[in-house]
Amino acid sequence: MSTFTEPPFHPQEDTSPSLAIRPVPARPAGWRTAVAWLSLLGAAALTLGAVALLLLPGPAPAPRPAVTVTVAVAATEVAGVATATPPPTLLPAETLPTLPPDAAPALVVAAEATLSPQQRQALLAAPLLQEGSRFTLNYDPFTVIKGDRPRSSFVQYTIVRGDTIDAISRRYNLKSESIAWCNDRRIIFVLRVGDVLTIPPTDGVCHRVLGTREETVAELATTYKVANPLDIIDFPLNNLYGTDPTARLPGGLTVFIPGGEGEPITWNPGYNAEKDENGNVVSVTFAAGQAGSCGNVPAGGGSFWGNPLPGGRWVRGFYAGHTGIDLSAPVGTPVYAAQTGPVLFSGFSRWGYGEAIVLAHGAFSTLYGHMSQRNLGCGQVAVVGQVIGLVGSTGNSTGPHLHFEVRFNDVPMNPSGLGTGW
Asked: Considering the domain 155-258 in this protein, what is its CATH number?
């Protein structure tokens, strides 16, 4: 092999020392090339064979031996119907075949059917546990409807334009009088925007104990027609747990009487009747000093009653909290005097009745409220059947109607049955 001699290195030169250059070897012999190709072909064949073995499915597993166990079904009587119960003893061990350790037997249970379709149906209907069983399931399921769920506290509601007592009571699922019995009468008769109403959690009466009275829970129950005084004591908001019904209550305490009935809610502007020596009413003063009052007026009176609104439609009747009847009719429908008598009051009532007229009939008086027009004034006398005004929706009213009251010595009474046509 020939070599190349490196020239001497000089540091001032630009080039670095060169590497040794080997001569290109001669090409290998032909038999070596053939051996290499044969080795490659053999390796490829082995690889293809291994892939084929992996892709081929394996042998199917040997079937598991089946073991048949016959279970005898015993019959017992439940409510006169045969029922199935498991046998009390186990099968002998020698009846089971010996299996290889790695074989999992497939268990086949063959049961002898001993129940008729009628017995099977009765069995399914029978209770799972009999009386006296060790375990007893006592479920008392119930559903609470959101709208019916009682509230646990009072609510302060601020009146907005368009509110009425009836609409507010429906919103809270209460009677109108329950709201009235928990609020100042001035607010109830005339709802003013911005006034705040106290809304009770359920129907009942709010009572404030006066320090000058020796009031007890038992007396409150009697006054407000509650059968059991414990209903008042046990009401959570009263905080009276353990109180004796006959114990004196502290003054200033506010007690809620659930389910109680309060006094009738009525316009009480003041009434004075002068009587003769025989007890007959000779003159009446109604709402003395108020705008619309006619002062002292001769009582007068007629002999029979008439219908104040023959074309009206019954809306609401007389009950505690509503001291008259409401009769619906279009605005402008004529309103008639229910009995003959002089005018006691003709004007706008500040207590929610709007445009109103009150007539005197001896010890009786009649009131006509929410009218759109008054046809009579002070000093005039109405005759039964005479048009005294027109239906309207003035005052605390939800729509055009006539509020009609009959009072005896200024105590409201039910107009129905008096011959008024309602």
From this structure: 3.10.350.10
